[in-house]
Amino acid sequence: MEFEEEDYNQIINYNLGNLSEAENIEIQKRMEVDKVFREEVLLYQKLPYAITEKGWPDWGHENNEQEIEKIKTLKRSELISNIESKIKSGGRQYFENQNKHRKVWRKYAVGLVAALIIVFVSIKIFNFNSLSGESLYAEYVDWENNLLSTTEQSNVENRELQGEQLFKKEEYKKAKIIFIDIIEKGKRQDSHTLMYLGASYLELEEYNDALQIFDQLLQQKSLNSNRAYWYKSMVYLKQGDISKAKEELLSLIKNKENFNYSKARELLKQLD
């Protein structure tokens, strides 16, 4: 709020002791609830001593009659008139500055709201991508048809068959241990082993390990290595990273002979 002429008159007369007891009580009550008004009253109290460099008055002191007389004398002088003018001018400048601060605050508030909206929308998009990614993952992963079976492989060892059976029973941790053991012992590191190990990592949500294994599959340059594009797209779908899932699918459809070419095109349409 901005002080009116009447407010300044009340402040001056209050400090000069010119008000009635009821008016003084009213001023004091206002000072208790209005911080800005209280600061203005205290500022006026300090003015005579700021000018004479004698210090500030203690209005709570019992023997303050001499201090009041000094202000009364100043009130009648030309000097106090100038001071009154400066108080009013200072008051106007204060409120102008307050308005400027409010404008700055409005700009800040608008920026803050905009930032919150961006964060909110980003979270919504992230949640939407995660939900849509997981649902599409569940629809398209289809391990039964998308992984090679031991019946399609020659020279399959019992240990590898055991790992595949554990995977189909959804005992992914046990399956992972078996396929890691097969690779570490150097017995086999063919497409079949890498596919099942990568798929086990994926189902256990060990995404970085899954991607690393599928990259190894891709680097083999074998007949089945292009399956890695499909598997990697499944990793990103489950993570909710739609952009990277699309990148893998786009790489896959560059060659019509690649694994799940038609499904990749179909899935891309759903992701657009």
Q: Please give the number of β-strands.
A: 0
Q: How many separate helices?
A: 13
Secondary-structure element pattern, one letter each: HHHHHHHHHHHHH
Beta content comes to: under 5%
Using the alpha-carbon principal axes, give the shape: rod-shaped
Helix share bin: over 70%
The first-level CATH class of the largest domain is given as Mainly Alpha
Keywords summarizing the entry:
single chain; 272 residues; Serine Threonine Protein Phosphatase 5, Tetratricopeptide repeat; 13 helices
Give an overview of the whole structure.
By secondary structure, this protein is mainly alpha-helical. The chain folds into 2 domains: 5-76, no CATH class; 138-271, Alpha Horseshoe (Serine Threonine Protein Phosphatase 5, Tetratricopeptide repeat), CATH 1.25.40.10. Helix content is 76%, strand content 0%. The longest helix has 63 residues, at 78-140. It starts with a helix and ends with a helix. 21% of the residues are buried. The model is unreliable at 49-63, 101-110 and 123-128 (pLDDT under 50). TPR repeats lie at residues 191-224. The chain crosses the membrane at residues 108-126. Keywords: Membrane, TPR repeat, Transmembrane, Transmembrane helix. InterPro entries: TPR-like_helical_dom_sf, TPR_rpt.
